[in-house]
Write a structure and sequence with these properties.
The structure holds two protein chains of two kinds. Chain A is of the alpha+beta class. Chain A contains four helices and 20 strands. The chains are: A alpha+beta, B alpha+beta.
């Protein structure tokens, strides 16, 4: 069966849990920005957690189903409509052949995940169905979906209508959003005063926020420790000899606006980094809208591992709903 | 040159071999990453070498970060004794310098440049004390380059000029990055040349363009059928200046599946190279021309 795209939304891409293993060649892991939301959507419709679904940012798509299907929508809060009738989120919904799925205006969060029983069945590219548009790789023809595309769907394996995930197990960023950060990498390049300011200041998500990275504004400029720039680094104090960039690393070009690299990160470059958002909070970034007030919260490695364990426990509780 | 270790969150170990760029730092990074791969430390998911540093991605559910750090530190002293020798390949890359496409693009972004009245090549030639653009191009194409990192975006090589430091070309990046760069642009920033594998944003100065694709996600290009990315760290590159006619011809040959890059297998020994850089380079280049 196929799903016909009547309207693609702003930027809707096929995503799964990504393609690890090629970052050393500049091909990022990609996959759902909010991995927990995609996993949940898949569990609800009876798919493998890593099946490919659709990720839509800010604006939902309009999709026509050519056959009966079971779907679920998770992630951001955005009214879900089947032939205009509002339906619950985080719940398995029966769709009849010919029905149209559409969405109202975004309320909170930034990205919705649409899982269809059977999964979006585009070809694997380097082991994943995730779309990497810069490299024209994976997903539906290497790009965001467009009007009149027909998305192939695999064979469903026994999901049930009406199953849902309790409200308490749906993870959302707070207000202000808090992102836990492990200082490091080139943290020594900025002064002790900046070490305090960075975590004291309130930042705000800038309009330049996408799958590659999220930019932030509003905090005080960073002050650098003086040094003679090393050979090959470039003349700006924020420059380094081009290095790898970890996922979640926070670079601050010119010392002004922090950029957190996300799933479609560039794999390296010449800007220093002050630290890295812990793995457990990467999902939350995917749900931040521009202008969201944001605080960076300092943690040590024990704190990062505790956050990771908490997130794993939450996923286990979601799984147990369907066990 | 002692490594500096730092964690990038709970999933990455970041290791800086040296603050400054040098082939010694690159070889240290390369020998470390090879040693980490060979030691098969559990929990390692990705190993990414960079110019003078490297990064290991690991699963902290399988190995505690402190144990990961200890395992890699234990490798450092052995790896630093490794001979700086690699079996690699030298590749000739045709370049149409001062081509119309990068020229059109650089003119569109003049207000983001240090010297809006000059082209990127005129600016780079002047600040590196070359009398003319032609002299500068002769220098850029005159020595081989070492691929010291592949990345940024899909398959983009960072290349380090194989000459002694006083002769190395250095240029700053654009004041503000462009939003557009033609695919296969030969760029320059800091002490690195690069080839933009895909069209997109970029901050490096633009010198020319190659007709030879280096990334093909559809794997239709004859020499990219086995794998979509052409470059590997450690490759040696020699640029060959070409004109419009040869550029157009090569584009046609690539499209027809008849273009094969000039590649020869070589062994590179950093110590021999350092003893006589120009002589060593001449022998390397002879390997291409002697094919």
């Amino acid at each position: 069966m196929v799903v016909r795209v009547l309207n693609p939304g702003l930027s809707t891409t096929v995503q799964d849990l990504g393609r690890p293993g090629y970052f050393h060649l500049g091909i990022p892991i990609g996959g759902a920005m909010d991995r927990l939301a995609l996993r949940a959507a898949n569990l609800i419709v009876g798919n493998d957690e890593g099946a490919a679904g659709l990720e839509a940012v800010f604006v939902g798509p309009q999709l026509e189903f050519t056959r009966d299907a079971l779907i679920a929508v998770t992630g951001a809060d955005m009214p879900i409509k089947l032939d205009g009738e509002e339906k619950p989120s985080w719940t398995a919904l029966k769709v009849r052949a010919g029905q149209v799925l559409s969405f109202g205006f975004l309320q909170t969060g930034a990205r919705i995940y649409i899982a269809i029983a059977g999964g979006i069945d585009v070809p694997l590219a380097l082991g994943s169905r995730s779309t990497y548009p810069i490299g024209a790789l994976g997903g539906f023809k290497g790009r965001a979906i467009a009007k009149d595309d027909e998305l192939p769907v695999g064979n469903a394996a026994g999901g049930r209508e009406g199953r849902s995930i309790p409200e308490a197990l749906r993870r959302r960023p707070g207000m202000p959003a808090e992102l836990r950060v492990l200082p490091g990498l080139y943290w020594h390049r900025v002064t002790e005063e900046t070490h305090r300011n960075f975590f004291d200041d309130q930042w705000k998500v800038a309009p330049e926020a996408d799958r590659m990275g999220y930019r932030f504004r509003g905090g005080r400029p960073l002050q650098f420790v003086e040094r003679d720039q090393p050979f090959g680094a470039g003349s700006d104090p924020s420059n380094i000899v081009d290095s790898c960039y970890p996922y979640g690393s926070i670079q601050v070009p010119g010392g002004t606006e922090p950029i957190i690299l996300h799933r479609d990160a560039v794999s390296g470059g010449g800007y220093f980094m002050v630290g890295t958002v812990v793995s457990a909070d990467m999902d939350l970034i995917g749900q931040l809208q521009p202008n969201t007030p944001t605080r960076f919260v300092k943690v040590d490695m024990d704190g990062a591992l505790k956050a990771r364990a908490d997130r794993a426990a939450l996923l286990d509780r979601i799984r147990s709903v369907f066990a | 040159m002692k490594n500096r270790y730092s964690f990038g969150g709970d999933e990455h170990l970041f290791v800086e071999c040296d603050e400054s760029m040098s082939l010694e730092a690159f070889f240290k990074s390369l020998s470390m990453t090879n040693a980490v791969r060979d030691s098969q430390i559990k929990g390692v998911t990705e190993i990414c070498p960079a110019n003078a540093s490297f990064q290991i991605k690991f699963n902290p559910d399988m190995i505690r970060p402190d144990d990961m750090l200890r395992e890699v530190q234990a490798i450092e002293s052995a790896a630093s004794k490794t001979d700086p020798v690699i079996a690699t390949r030298i590749i000739e890359i045709p370049v149409f310098y001062q081509d119309p496409w990068t020229h059109e693009t650089l003119m569109r972004f003049r207000e983001r440049h240090q010297d809006p009245k000059a082209t990127d090549l005129e600016y780079a030639a002047r600040i590196n004390n070359y009398a003319t653009v032609d002299d500068f191009i002769a220098a850029h194409a005159g020595s081989p380059w070492f691929v010291s990192m592949v990345g940024f975006v899909a398959g983009l090589p960072f290349m380090y000029q194989m000459v002694d430091r006083p002769r190395q070309i250095q240029v700053p990046k654009y004041l503000r990055p462009r939003t557009d760069t033609p695919k296969l642009t030969i760029g320059y920033g800091g002490c690195f040349s690069c080839i933009y594998s895909v069209r997109g944003a970029g901050g490096y100065q633009m010198f020319g363009i190659t007709p030879m694709p280096i990334f093909d996600p559809e794997q239709k290009t004859s020499y990219l059928r086995d794998f979509m990315v052409f470059f590997r760290p450690g490759d040696i590159v020699k640029f060959k200046p070409i004109g419009r006619e040869e550029y157009d011809h090569t584009v046609e040959q690539v499209a027809a599946g008849r273009f094969t890059p000039a590649i020869s297998d070589v062994t590179f020994d950093l110590r021999e190279f350092q003893k006589d850089i120009d002589g060593y380079n001449a022998r390397l280049e002879g390997m291409i021309n002697g094919r």
